[in-house]
## 1
Amino acid sequence: MNRYEGRRALVTGGGSGIGQATVLRMLREGGSVVAADVSAAGLEDTVAKAGDLAAKLTTVTMDIGDESSVRAGVASAVEALGGLDVLVNAAGILRSSHTHETTLDQFERIIRVNLVGTFLVIREAIPALREGTSAAVVNFSSTSAGFAHPYMAAYAASKGGVQSMTHALAAEYAKSGIRFTAVQPGSISSGMTDGSGQSGQSRGPGLPEDADMSLFMKLAPAIGQGFAGPESVAGVVAMLASEDGAFITGTEVRIDGGTHF
Ligand SMILES: NC(=O)c1ccc[n+]([C@@H]2O[C@H](COP(=O)([O-])OP(=O)(O)OC[C@H]3O[C@@H](n4cnc5c(N)ncnc54)[C@H](O)[C@@H]3O)[C@@H](O)[C@H]2O)c1
């Protein structure tokens, strides 16, 4: 499949996990891609994995929670690509804790990166996307936005916010030719869930030591052999942001092996 021939994409969180898998998928389908991440080491890993396809890959170090970093990062991405058709907002962080022990700083940091960061990148990218061809934005919600995930109140709230924002933006920019969709991954192996991330940026302490694991009894995939790889989400993201997704906007797709049906 060569659905990304001539297509220009910016992928945040492109240094690990699902974002990295999405960068590689879009490159393999012929796209020109800018991978952005707060982790320079993660971006180096993405370039190494791209191999010969790295000729069509540019990297940008960007902290999506920092307004000036996002301004500079998105501007340099648009310049490198000569415009923008696709934005994938995969960057995110997960922190787990008992809510009564969560500090305001910890709560606000998760909202800042996952929700405010997604807003900042979208805001900066909209002018270029309006000029783009069949423009599409794919945001990262989570199964936690709609199904109870204990010890993750701030994370769940941030992802619920991303999902609601996606619907509002889909309506607001429908006549500007920009589609907005979201994915809800769950049970996906990545730097966030198995600690293999290059930076450790996205992964905080695991569950509290005294976490009640019976609360997670429901949280197992119904199909497959446990967690799926990040490419299982990347393929869906690539479909949503391609011409194959041309009639899809203002909605989300859950990719969790039936963990939450
Ligand atoms: N893995 C899952 O099961 C799962 C489930 C639901 C949602 N998600 C979402 O999928 C997305 C991708 O996560 P993943 O699972 O691939 O994890 P990951 O840790 O492998 O990747 C996240 C990437 O985001 C980057 N990042 C973190 N903070 C950043 C910042 N401030 N600015 C720029 N980059 C930053 C990290 O450096 C990392 O490269 C996230 O939004 C996550 O919330 C994942």
## 2
Amino acid sequence: MKPLFVTATDTDIGKTFVCAGLAYALKKSGIDVGIMKPFACGVKQKIGFSSNDLTILTNAAMVDDAEDIINPFFFPIPASPYTAAKNLGVKIDVEHVMECFRKLDQIHDIVLVEGIGGIMTPILKEYAIIDLIKDLMANTIIVTSSKIGTVNHTVLTCNMCKNMNIPIKGLIINNFDSTGYPIPELERDLSALTDLPVLCSLPHMEKFNLSNYSALIQEKMDILALVS
Ligand SMILES: Nc1ncnc2c1ncn2[C@@H]1O[C@H](COP(=O)(O)OP(=O)(O)OP(=O)(O)O)[C@@H](O)[C@H]1O
Ligand SMILES: [Mg+2]
């Protein structure tokens, strides 16, 4: 099955939560889901995986693949992989990321890949997340927010993906609350402006619970349509 790449309009929008919710729902539907976070940057956790995203994703997908395969590059600096690698004097080898992906792809039905930042987050000078999506030949989901400003970020992201012929399954509006756009209005306008479906909109959950969040995803959209 084609991998599913979860990207977003920015950092901190909900890639990890959406990816975890999808992984949990697909797993419950009998699909063996692998997960990958090729690049992670930020504060290193004291116990377990270096990146907290990996803890959330592996728990959701119920996998025990080795950390160096699911996250070949971790940088303990809150920056893009390009900047972090420059600052730390590390050379990023994209072919190594592809090898890790192929290993996961062989042992799972589908691999869900969480990006980092947005689609133009740089990995190398001439290589950004969007190039990785292309190399992985992945279907893509774009996670966006309901904050004022999201329309600009979403249209920019979708247009860039279209220019690069990236197949996009649709948009997910995540973490909405009463301070942003009204959701029916935002769903209407984002789908009209991008010509893409809004697959579902997920509320801010005061007390986050993966099982409830994932059940909402399953209720609101056809998750099996993501698997092709
Ligand atoms: N639906 C939601 N309800 C409540 N909190 C949420 C929801 N979605 C995301 N969050 C919170 O928002 C923050 C960002 O979410 P998440 O870590 O999934 O974003 P991200 O896009 O993966 O960020 P990064 O770029 O750091 O990987 C997290 O602290 C999470 O707790
Ligand atoms: Mg994340």
